Amino acid sequence: MQSTRETIRPAFPLWRMGAAALLLLSLWATAIASKEASLEELKARLATSSPADRAHLCVEIAERQLTSANQFYADGDSEKGQVALNDVAAFSESARDNSIQSGKRLKQTEIAVRVMTRKLNDLKHRVTHDEQSSVQNTIDRLQRVRDDLLGAMFHHGDK
After folding, report:
1. Percentages of the chain per state (helix, strand, coil), in multiples of 5
2. Which residues of the chain carry a pLDDT beneath 50?
3. What is the pLDDT, as a whole number, of residue 35?
């Protein structure tokens, strides 16, 4: 009796599985990139969002503007850095107002503002002496935002 060797061939060759995996990975990366909305798109969505959603969008805009401010100051462009800092404070205040109005996302907004305040303190130590006052002004505004949010979270009524 003769033994015959049969080669077992996979129904789906390995190179095709690798190509399929690569295709899925590229589709996933494209989907993630398309979900990353631009700053202008986020600002445009504010008008049609509910107050709770506006709070989240305002926090995201403020965080992005803080990243931009850090970069502007690192690049020596203090004018653009100041504009970005004004946006950080303004959108943080808007996030506070929308959180308090809706009664939602108070804790998440307070945490995000606390983190931004810490980053601003770090920035304050990296900028020139002349620029420190504008960074401190933004820190003070964010601290008032935090105080208001904490007051709204822990308000126990008049005693």
Report:
1. 75, 0, 25
2. 31, 33-35
3. 47
| Residue 41 in tokens | 């798109």
Do residues 78 and 68 make contact, with C-beta atoms less than 8 angstroms apart?
no
Distance spanning both ends of the chain, measured CA to CA: 100
Which tens digits make up the pLDDT trace of 95-133?
A: 999 999 999 999 999 999 999 999 999 999 999 999 999
40: tokens are: 């202008």
| Dihedral in degrees, nearest 10, Cα atoms 18, 23, 24, 26 | 120
Taking the C-alpha atoms of residue 55 and residue 157, their distance in angstroms, rounded to an integer, is: 24
Residue 134 contacts residue 85 (beta carbons within 8 Å): yes
